[in-house]
Write a structure and sequence with these properties.
about 200 residues; mainly beta; 14-stranded antiparallel beta sheet; 1 helix; globular
Length: about 200
């Protein structure tokens, strides 16, 4: 009887997942062949809105132990970015916060509670989408983290280079339209994210 109840709960959960149209991805964060963290991201579709959430936890030692957490919440509606919130903590203390919101025909971008800039053109593709969707025929993406427009350069063989506003380059590798690996220039350290 207990096995029947467990099986029923598993099937009910799978049916709930199918009805809410949710996708989960998990990646290991690797530095010098050692796993130093995890990245988990979710895409949930409901009506015309797509909600993305990404949580990253990295623990490593440079001079002292460092724990970095990235938390992204991004909403698209009818293929246009509507809102993006990014919170970064270092050793459990607030480090950076960037909020982007579509208001009165433009994006208002606020960093650390100060209005920094606005963008008037609609945004159809942002960095978080790179986890879920190969950027075929896409030349630019919006960086939720710093509120800038990044360049995407196809390198062939389903590989892409993303160049941020500071000139740092990340390389993304896809197979069957899915991200399998990325090489990230994180400033102080460079690391890889590898699908689990």
């Amino acid at each position: 009887m207990i096995w029947y109840l467990i099986l029923f709960q598993i099937l009910s959960f799978q049916e709930f997942e199918a009805n809410t149209n949710t996708s989960h991805l998990k990646f290991d964060i690797v530095l010098k062949d050692k796993i130093i963290g995890q990245l988990e991201t979710t895409k949930r579709i409901k009506d015309s809105k797509i909600h993305y959430h990404s949580a990253t936890n990295i623990t490593t030692r440079i001079i002292t132990e460092i724990n970095v957490n990235y938390n992204y919440n991004v909403v698209f509606n009818n293929n246009n970015l509507k809102k993006a919130d990014v919170h970064i903590t270092v050793n459990n203390k607030p480090h950076a916060e960037t909020n982007t919101e579509w208001l009165q025909n433009q994006y208002i971008i606020t960093q650390n509670n100060k209005k920094e800039k606005s963008i008037k053109d609609p945004i159809h593709y942002s960095t978080i989408l790179m986890y879920f969707q190969e950027p075929e025929n896409i030349s630019y993406c919006f960086s939720e983290e710093d509120g800038s427009i990044n360049t995407i350069v196809p390198l062939g063989n389903h590989t892409y280079k993303k160049i941020n506003a500071k000139g740092k380059e990340n390389i993304y590798y896809y197979k069957n339209g899915k991200l399998i690996k990325a090489e990230i220039d994180g400033g102080l350290v460079s690391f890889q994210i590898i699908t689990q």
